[in-house]
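task queued by scheduler; priority normal; single chain, no ligands, no partner chains; default sampling; output format set to structure tokens
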Amino acid sequence: MSYVRVSILGSMTGGEVWSINPVFDPTGEFPGGVDQNALDTAAAAIAALNPGGTLLGWLTTAASVTGARLEVRDDNSDGLIAISTQQRGTALPGTGSPTKPAQIAGVFSIRTNTPGASGRGRVYWPAMGSSMGSDFRLNSPAVSTALAEFKTYMLAVRSALAAAFPTIGFDLAVRSKAQQATPHAVRIQVGNVLDTQRRRRDNLPESYVQVAFP
């Protein structure tokens, strides 16, 4: 058996890149192995998808969706079986005004029926343009809208995979390398507190000033 890691790829002003990497579990085996043409077709279709208006607003004009990469990996070893990277014809920019640092993200939590950390996943969506109230929390209507748009986005990704491989289905899932398990999602949730995508922060190009001491 295998699973598919779907990476939505993006860029930011200044040369920084970002991605989200949800996992989808096939309901059966790829017939006769993974057809590369079909994988390319799925990647191109996913690259062309548009997130909803609130998600694009969070992304801001300083960031864009640029493409998609699909990795089919072995369930037992996590070894790479097949890969396809496809770019959008034209990068899709966000629409909001950047008001926050590039490492700020809204966190969508993928929940399964498997208890413990192996049954939970997180997706960090750039949120430089998100709006907060006086309590420093995201406004409730925007959070609910973003969650609905993210669900729609994941369903569209699933449909693109299913269209390219019509003999099998796909389920949004969480991959646990430690348990070598890929439990399926039963709900998605998002909190109203912004988080920090530390991996992106560690790689963010930064300029320094210094002074001699003493």
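post-processing summary
- The two ends are 62 Å apart (CA to CA).
- The longest helix spans residues 140-164.
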